[in-house]
Amino acid sequence: MERALLDQGRALYSRVEAESLLREDPRITHRTLYYDVLSAVARGASTPAKVGSMLERSRSAMVAPLEVLESTGYVRKEQDLLKARHPAISVADPVIRFNQLITLPMVDLVERRRGAQVWQSSRPTYHWKILGPHFEETAREWARSFAIDETGLSLGAVGTAEIADPTARTKHEVDLLALAPGERPQNPRAAIALIGEA
Question: Strand order in 158-165's β-sheet?
Fold first, then answer.
């Protein structure tokens, strides 16, 4: 099934289809800029400043395009459950992530019937940047929708959080964090009901 995604006969691998990804929405006027922003977010730029840094533009120049992409559903912004003013931006749909990370960079090889070679070199990207984030979001959605029925746990807000590790001088992302019912997000003393790693 994975290899079928790289079939050159599929619409996903047509240059015309790939280039028309954003053409339908009249608010998206500079398609090249929006493609570049989507690619930067798909590669892991999770804030306007990081997107701007990847594209060699200012943070302020990225705010409006990101807002348009969020309003059209291409990207989503999720607030850290524990820290105020700490949103993380991500590409909302795994097919769009696939398009930005594998289809567009590799379309020349696929059109020359080098799908097996492309797939071999793209597998790590597929697993870490496409499949992994999608599974994490699926786990959070399961917790929101089914945890109470399946486990009896009553959960409040469900999302992610970034935890600082001062000893190692690094940060760790918690894939699934659920606050206790009634707890307010971004409250440093909020009671936590569930921590999960996807």
Answer: 158-165, 170-179, 192-196
